[in-house]
Amino acid sequence: MEQQNVRIFVGFDPKEVVAYHVLVQSIIEKSSIPVEFSPIALSNLGGIFTRERNALQSTEFSFSRFLTPYLSGFEGWSIFMDCDMLMRADIAELWALRDERYAVMCVKHDYQPKIDTKFLGQTQTKYEKKNWSSFVLFNNDKCRALTPDYVNTATGLQLHQFKWLENDDLIGELPVIWNYLVNEYDYREDAKNVHFTDGGPYFEEYKNDDYADEWFAARERLLFAQQPV
Question: In principle, which of 58, 101, 103, 227 could form an S-S bond with 142, CB 3.0–4.6 Å?
Answer without folding.
Answer: 103
